[in-house]
Specification:
alpha/beta, about 30% helix, seven-stranded mixed β-sheet, about 210 residues, 11 strands
Length: about 210
């Protein structure tokens, strides 16, 4: 019934979060969206952006994926449903409220192929000793990327991989930081591709080890 009514008018409920302030779960035109005040976290524009980015990667060569930033699980849904990905995914999410929403609203929960860890992504990367073929970096708090994820120390920790997809910007004010990341990746024998204004908004960086 809610799905049908959402074609007439949006239906929203709000949930408070320490990390994301207020989260909104909105039924709109038959889709259940997870939004913050200024950004989509699942099943809307973010899903379209990730689909476009993943088209430019080599998922078929991937055996082990690290997802930094779970949201409502759009990346996982795309990997499983569109690419039939049945290998190991590890998802890191700082916000326990987001993890609860992903499980209850989108049926994204830990299983034999998916491990969800509630932890700050920066702290996880500092301690990580596991090799991942492919790292997806999708780390927003509302429409901002925390500054530590633009720092060289973070990138030096994740370049021991074959591929990186970085959802790099919702706003257009990170040009210097992004160029520094691209320069670092190129110096470490990655080829980089930058997609601007994906779905008319985001910048994506795709990096592949040569």
């Amino acid at each position: 019934m809610i799905r049908l009514l959402s074609y007439i008018y949006p239906i929203t409920k709000t949930i408070k979060s320490k990390h994301n302030n207020v989260l909104e779960i909105t039924w709109f035109r038959g889709k259940k969206l997870l939004n913050t005040k200024n950004a989509n976290y699942s099943n809307g524009s973010l899903k379209k952006i990730l689909k476009i980015g993943l088209k430019h990667t080599n998922i078929e060569l991937t055996n082990n994926i690290l997802l930094l930033g779970l949201g409502g699980g759009s990346a996982i849904e795309i990997l499983v449903n569109k690419y039939n990905y049945d290998k190991k995914i590890t998802a890191i999410e700082i916000d326990p409220v987001i993890i609860d929403i992903a499980e209850k609203e989108y049926n994204i929960k830990s299983n034999k192929n998916l491990t969800i860890i509630c932890k700050d992504a920066y702290g996880f990367i500092k301690e990580n000793t596991i090799f991942f073929d492919f790292i997806i970096v999708d780390l927003f708090l509302d429409d901002e990327i925390p500054t530590q994820f633009f720092q060289e120390q973070f990138w030096l920790k994740i370049i021991n991989t074959k591929q990186i997809l970085f959802n790099a910007s919702l706003k257009g004010n990170y040009n210097t930081q992004l160029q520094n990341i691209i320069t670092l990746l190129n110096s470490k024998k990655f080829t980089t591709q930058v997609l601007h204004k994906v779905n008319k908004t985001n910048t994506l960086i795709i990096a592949k080890k040569q």
